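Same chain as my last thread, 198 residues:
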Amino acid sequence: MLGLILAGGRATRMGGGDKGRLALGSATLVESVIGRLKPQVGALALSANGDPTRFADLGLPVVADSVPGQPGPLAGILAGMDLAAREGRSHVLSAAADTPFLPPDLAQRLSAGLSEAPIVMAASAAAGRPIRQPVIGLWPVALREDLRAALNEGVSKVGLWAGRHGVVLAVWPTDPVDPFFNVNTPEDLAIARQIARG
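reply #2:
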């Protein structure tokens, strides 16, 4: 299984730049994600466009979108699938660079869902119904050509493409902390820093 950290967002609500580089205690957001994912997967890579050398200090391969126009996270997932295929891996586990509190059993529980559907997405427990985390999921490399064709047709929504193939949710509790809390705004970053301090 290849772990793929999606770091290609434009971070417009944070003023632009590489959001994953923002400090969270003694580490950055992306370093926190690496620390959470690394023990759970066979290898890790980063999905990002632009100059890959800006991430050289992380020591991870960097894959760029192969589909033009930066259509979003699905293009990053496809880039991860292409890398996984070259390495002979069957699945890609994706997560965003701004989700520093990922659960330690993410890979295990997503993998368990494969008996029910080809795609397994993470979800946060919520009153009434689970809240999907569409970019945090487990993707079969066997679907990469289908995904490539969908992107070339203009499909950019993760849920729309995934729904064509069958999706099951793996749901995590949000108490005391939502493990999929993501940092989109300066206010979110302040909350994340408070959580990280304990």
